[in-house]
Design brief:
The complex is a heterodimer of chains A (114) and B (111). Chain A is mainly β and 114 residues long. In chain A, 0% of the residues lie in helices and 53% in strands. In chain A, strands 2, 5, 6, 10, 11 and 12 form a 6-stranded mixed sheet that branches. Chain A starts with a strand and ends with a strand. Chain B is built from no helices and 11 strands. Chain B starts with a strand and ends with a strand. Classes of the chains: A mainly beta (114), B mainly beta (111). At the A-B interface, strand 5, strand 6 and strand 11 of A face strand 4, strand 5 and strand 10 of B.
Chain lengths: 114, 111
Amino acid sequence: AQSVAQPEDQVNVAEGNPLTVKCTYSVSGNPYLFWYVQYPNRGLQFLLKYITGDNLVKGSYGFEAEFNKSQTSFHLKKPSALVSDSALYFCAVRDEDSSYKLIFGSGTRLLVRP
Amino acid sequence: DTGVSQNPRHKITKRGQNVTFRCDPISEHNRLYWYRQTLGQGPEFLTYFQNEAQLEKSRLLSDRFSAERPKGSFSTLEIQRTEQGDSAMYLCASSSGAAEFFGPGTRLTVL
C-alpha cells in the first residue's frame, strides 16, 4: 500500500537559517513525489515534483528537495528561511504504475520566527 | 485568473440536505480530481476523471456521493442526505500531466 510519513508536526526555524521538512514514502512501483504548501483557508500550491532524473529538484520560492531512493525519502529544503515561508507543508506520492491518485502526508507546520 | 476555480467557497447546510459543488479546471487540463480535507489532516483522494470518464473512485466515496464531468470540462460533486461527518474542505485539482494544481476549495459545514 502507498503511504507517506511526515514525522514532524511542526518545524521551528529562525529567519535566515536553513530549513528542512522531512518526508518518507512507501510505494510498490515507481514513485512520483510532490511537495505542496497551504496557507490558511487556501487551497494547496504546488512547490516541486520529482518524476525521474536528477535527484535534486528545484522548485518555487527557492525551495528544493532531494530524492533518496535507498532511504525512500524526499526532504524539502531551503537555504535561508523567510518569515513568509510560515505555512503548512504537505508531501505527496503517486505510484504511477498503479494509480492516478496522490497520497498525502499529514502535513508539517513550518514556523519561521523573525 | 486561469487557475482552478471552485464554487461556492463556503456552504452551510442542515443535516439531511443535498449539496452540489462545482469545479472549473484549468482549460487545457484533461485530468480532474476531487479530494477531501479535514482539519489537521492531509487531503484524501475521492475520485478522478480523465476527460469525461470517471476512472478511479475511493472507497470514501459512499453511495451518497456522486461526481460528474459531463463534457470533459467542469465537474460537479453532489452529496445527498448530508451528515455531520461530511463537514470538510472539498478540493478540486486539475492536471495535464505530472502535477496537480488545486483550487481554493469549498468548505462544507453540516449542522
